[in-house]
Design brief:
By secondary structure, this protein is α/β, with parallel strands linked by helices. The protein has 12 helices and 15 strands. Helix 1 crosses helix 9, helix 3 packs parallel to helix 4 and helix 10 packs parallel to helix 12.
Length: 392
């Protein structure tokens, strides 16, 4: 197995199997990978996309086959503005939207435009492990900020701001990956105030905003239009299909101008004009909302199934049942989940160990489980196998 080293520029290095650092994993037949954080193939709406593509092709306008405008397809931005402004208290403006190729591409572009090698950035502890890889690629000095059941701990951020001058804070405020926690309204407001006071960008990865199962989350950071240093990141990967490679940023016009003026876009044009044209029609028809409603129904049932199976097979585990998103963040007191993973794989079950989500090499007694890829029967099977590996 190929192993690569990740350096988070805090004097910490860890060796991780390459298979843990890629989103594209081939799963052998009969194997249950409960760590996999992408949607089940059966949930990818081929028929809706086919209908949307047929409608677009029938119009006889082939302009979407040309290089796109730097900010992104105007029709998609208009449709997306209506979608984002529906029911969340915001009044989205198409001019504040920038079309991306997804969250990872957006983060890479933001690092390119707004940071230089050696700059300091803040992340949550834990945080999305592949974002940490992107920050490492750009040579950024990563400082972690502790979290609890209510999200980022603001007092810990204030302490860090006394010692560091950060270019940005990367935060997943709603149904966080991996913890599933949601940043409270009070903390959001304090965070916004600190970002303005200390002049750092706030990168809010809001990819799970619409996958709420039991409670309505606070309004997204994209709705705070008066804060010129806030960048809200969204994606169609979780609410439609990751293979589209399509997402968006919502930000102040001055930030949008910085992005559209970069060499990548002046050379190559806007991102994914072809896909944008198809997805635009899908939004306008109301099919995107229908697809989200179906996902919420399916995932809600899987959350209940995993909750019940965890209590049955891992009674000593500590976790909070997520109210949205994909993930259960499970603590096994006194355990080492890297070692457990080695025991589990021969029993044909896998997960993601907590150390992956730490920029400090910590969280070794945690593991992340996902409800996105498997139905209830396979979730039960996977946790039964995990129980067996623990007994070994």
């Amino acid at each position: 197995m190929q192993v690569i080293e990740i350096c988070c520029h805090m004097g910490y290095k860890t060796s991780m199997p390459k298979s843990l650092l890629t989103a594209q994993i081939n799963i052998p037949p009969g194997f249950v990978d409960l760590g996999r954080g992408d949607p089940q193939l059966a949930l990818l709406p081929l028929h809706l996309l086919r209908q949307a593509a047929d409608r677009r092709f029938s119009q006889g306008d082939n302009s979407f086959l040309q290089y796109g405008t730097e900010q992104g397809d105007g029709s998609l931005r208009a449709a997306l503005a209506d979608f984002l402004g529906d029911g969340n208290g915001s009044s989205a403006d198409p001019d504040t939207l920038f079309i991306t190729a997804g969250i990872s591409s957006a983060l890479d572009l933001l690092c390119t435009v707004f940071t230089r090698w050696g700059d300091t950035v803040f992340v949550e502890e834990p945080s999305y492990f592949l974002a940490l890889r992107i920050f490492a690629d750009h040579g950024l000095h990563v400082v972690s900020i502790s979290t609890d059941g209510s999200g980022l701990v603001i007092e810990a951020l204030e302490d860090a701001l006394r010692e560091h001058r950060a270019k940005f804070l990367y935060v997943i405020p709603t149904f966080q990956n991996p913890s599933g926690h949601t940043l409270t309204q009070e903390r959001r407001e304090r965070l916004l105030s600190l970002s303005r006071q200390h002049n750092f960008l706030l990168l809010a990865d809001e990819v799970y905003q619409y996958l709420n199962y039991t409670v309505q989350p606070p309004k997204p950071f994209g709705a705070y239009r008066e804060f010129e240093n806030v960048i809200s990141l969204g994606s169609f990967s979780k609410i439609l299909a990751p293979g589209l490679r399509l997402g968006w940023m919502q930000a102040d016009a001055r930030i949008i101008q910085r992005l559209t003026g970069c060499g990548l876009l002046t050379s190559g044009g806007g991102m994914n004009p072809f896909t944008s044209a198809v997805v635009c029609g899908l939004i306008e028809s109301g099919d995107l909302k229908k697809n989200i409603a179906n996902l919420v129904r399916v995932y809600s049932a899987r959350v209940r199934a995993m909750d019940e199976s965890l209590r049955r097979h891992l009674p000593d585990a500590e976790f909070t049942t997520p109210q949205g998103g994909y993930f259960f963040w499970v603590r096994l007191p006194g355990g080492d989940t890297e070692t457990l993973r080695k025991e589990a794989q021969p029993l044909q079950v896998d997960f993601r160990p907590g150390i992956l989500f730490s920029s400090q090499g910590g969280l070794r007694d945690y593991l992340r489980l996902s409800i996105s890829y498997y139905e209830a029967e396979d979730i039960e099977l996977g946790l039964r196998r995990l129980e067996q590996s623990l007994r070994r």
